[in-house]
């Protein structure tokens, strides 16, 4: 292949992949409101602000793949998290070093509380609501696809189920009318 043609092809492919990633990223966004008042929002004893950075990083990675699977093209979903209670509980008295380890037990299920807004391609708000998700069977749920998310695997698995199920049905109902 000629060098100019190869270079042009590479530039085209990077542009196409970049546009696809930008589209999927903007389909699903989130903000966290007043993290100091979240019930249990600490990764290994980190402050809420540092945990917020970890959550945002994992959520952005989650949004890049989940948006394409869950949200129909032309729609944008924004989540405003108002409370998070992470799976498990930090119990420093249970270990020798009194370190902030999170113990994952069935009696400490994850909970997400958020407001959500769905906008159509024209930017019009078509769905609004508030939701509280809690999964008391989180230890028995198949969340294997979230193993690489080390801190928020149970919370993101629960959110994925909601996006793929209830929210997708709500969006489909709009198109049925």
User: How many domains, in number, for the residues?
Assistant: 1
What average pLDDT do the residues reach?
83
Order of helices and strands: HEHEEEEEH
Q: State the separation between the terminal residues, measured CA to CA.
A: 52 Å
Q: Helicity, in percent? A: 40-55%
**Which range does the strand content fall in?**
15-25%
Q: Give the biggest sheet.
A: 4 strands, mixed
Structural class by SSE content: alpha+beta
Strand order of the largest sheet: 1-2-5-6
| Poorly predicted runs of 5 or more residues | 5-25
Strand element count:
6
Given the C-alpha coordinates, what overall shape results?
Answer: elongated
Count of alpha/pi helices: 3
Radius of gyration: 19 Å
Keyword list:
177 residues, alpha+beta, four-stranded mixed beta sheet, elongated
In brief, what are we looking at here?
This protein is of the alpha+beta class and 177 residues long. It has helices at residues 3-27, 48-70, 153-176; strands spanning 28-32, 76-85, 89-90, 102-103, 111-119, 125-134. The protein has one domain (3-176).
Can you characterise this structure?
With 177 residues, this protein is α+β, with helices and mostly antiparallel strands. It has one domain. Helices cover 41% and strands 21% of the residues. It is built from 3 helices and 6 strands. It has helices at residues 3-27, 48-70, 153-176; strands at 28-32, 76-85, 89-90, 102-103, 111-119, 125-134. The strands form 2 sheets. A 4-stranded mixed β-sheet has the order 1-2-5-6. A two-stranded antiparallel sheet has the order 3-4. A hairpin with a 5-residue loop joins strand 5 and strand 6 (125-134). The longest helix has 25 residues, at 3-27. The radius of gyration is 19 Å and the shape is elongated. It starts with a helix and ends with a helix. Mean pLDDT is 83; it is low at 5-25.
